From TrEMBL:
InterPro entries assigned: GH (IPR017853), Glyco_hydro_5 (IPR001547)
Entry's Gene Ontology BP terms: polysaccharide catabolic process
Domain of life: Eukaryota
GO molecular function: hydrolase activity, hydrolyzing O-glycosyl compounds
UniProt keyword list: Glycosidase, Hydrolase, Signal
Family from the record: Belongs to the glycosyl hydrolase 5 (cellulase A) family.
Protein name listed in UniProt: Glycoside hydrolase family 5 domain-containing protein
Organism per entry: Panagrolaimus superbus
């Protein structure tokens, strides 16, 4: 069974032709423990990608394959940054001039495409995914947009 972790929510499975089951199947919380479906405590080992608007070159299947094969990870964190002062993000407006030479322009479709590459590769290699709506600017009020984002994520991958 394939399983993705969407922040705190867990969803059920869809079988892909070319994919590996994650090591513990569906996960659940029992008290203070993360467990498999039978209630046995599990340990996840993984990495976090840098935000796709900062280092998009790592948001691809080859990175996921290397982390699985060389580091034996079984979970990856994929932080999507809604917007940052320096580096664009989910809500960056490509029509606005760049005020900072380090700012990259981002669009929802491009960021969602990067997320899709990470999730598809993770499913292929049997790796759980934490999708993080990563807000690190306290003035960044994106609750409603976050709901829309996770509705789209749930619609796209909620059956995994």
């Amino acid at each position: 069974m394939k399983q993705l972790l969407f922040s705190i929510a867990f969803f059920h499975s869809l079988i892909f032709i070319v994919s590996i089951d994650p090591p513990y199947g569906p996960l659940k919380i029992q008290g203070k423990l993360l467990t498999d479906i039978n209630g046995t405590a599990v340990t996840l080992r993984g990495m976090s990608l840098m935000g796709s608007n900062y280092h998009p070159q790592f948001w691809n299947e080859e990175t996921i394959r290397q982390l699985k094969c060389s580091w034996n990870i079984n979970i990856i964190r994929a932080p999507i940054t809604p917007k940052s002062k320096c580096c664009g993000g989910w809500f960056a407006d490509p029509s606005q001039p760049i005020n900072n030479p380090w700012e990259w322009k981002s669009t929802r479709d491009r960021e969602f495409g990067r997320l899709k590459q990470v999730i598809d590769a993770s499913v292929k290699y049997g790796i759980y995914v934490i999708i993080d709506w990563h807000i690190f600017d306290f003035g960044n009020n994106t609750l409603e947009q976050g709901r829309e984002f996770f509705a789209n994520v749930s619609q796209t991958w909620g059956n995994l």
